[in-house]
Amino acid sequence: MSEVDENPLLSLQDDVLHELGDDRIGDIAGLLGTDEAGARQMVCTTVSALSDEAETVATPHDAPLTGVATVGGFATGGLMAGLLAEEAEPVAASVARSTGLPPEAVSRVVEMVIPVELAVLTKRAARK
Q1: What's the pLDDT score for residue 5?
Q2: How far is CA 91 from CA 74, 76, 94, 103, 107, in A?
Q3: What are the phi and psi torsion angles at 62 (to 5°)?
Q4: pLDDT score of 109
Q5: How far apart are CA 82 and CA 17, in angstroms?
Q6: Those residues with Cβ within 8 angstroms of residue 58's Cβ, 6 or more apart along the chain or in another chain
Q7: Which residues contact 106 (CB under 8 A, 6 or more apart)?
Q8: pTM of the model
Q9: Which of 31, 72, 69 minimizes the C-alpha distance to 51?
Q10: What is the pLDDT of residue 56?
Q11: pLDDT tens digit sequence for 22-73
Q12: Cα–Cα distances in Å, from 81 out to 50, 63, 107, 115?
């Protein structure tokens, strides 16, 4: 019997935080000039913003987010990696506006989170 996520976004945020680990969360905190709780909140905000962008990507069958993560093959960059990288700047600008943090620092965090989120989504897709 498989478990059903109550809130897939919270589960994704938790998985990305776990994948980042304490060391990279500490690096993000230092980059932002905040504590680890603030860094974790920033990662969650970024995952949410990236997920919103990813869900707007049109696919032939409106594949769920976990399915489109591997379109084109993750190892070769994949469609989703390219699309999310393309959206990194607008996402960073949006997150910076909503958090009041410097756009340059937010942009670096977004660039750190994109490959981690893609790795999490790829692992999820492989389990299905």
Answers
A1: 45
A2: 21, 23, 5, 10, 8
A3: 50, 50
A4: 93
A5: 22
A6: none
A7: 32, 42, 46, 92, 93, 95, 96, 99
A8: 0.73
A9: 69
A10: 52
A11: 999 999 999 999 999 999 999 999 998 887 765 554 343 344 444 444 444 4
A12: 11, 15, 16, 8
Of 3 and 109, the structure prediction assigns the larger pLDDT to 109
SS3 annotation, the chain: CCCCCCCHHHHHHHHHHHHHHHHHHHHHHHHHCCCHHHHHHHHHHHHHHHHHHHHCCCCCCCCCHHHHCCCCCHHHCHHHHHHHHHCHHHHHHHHHHHHCCCHHHHHHHHHHHHHHHHHHHHHHHHHC
Closest CA to 82 of 114, 55, 52, 112: 114
Residue 63 vs residues 7, 15, 116: alpha-carbon distances, Å: 18, 20, 20
Calpha distance 97→99 (Å, rounded): 6
**Structure tokens belonging to residue 6:** 């109550």
Lookup: tokens for 57? 């990507």
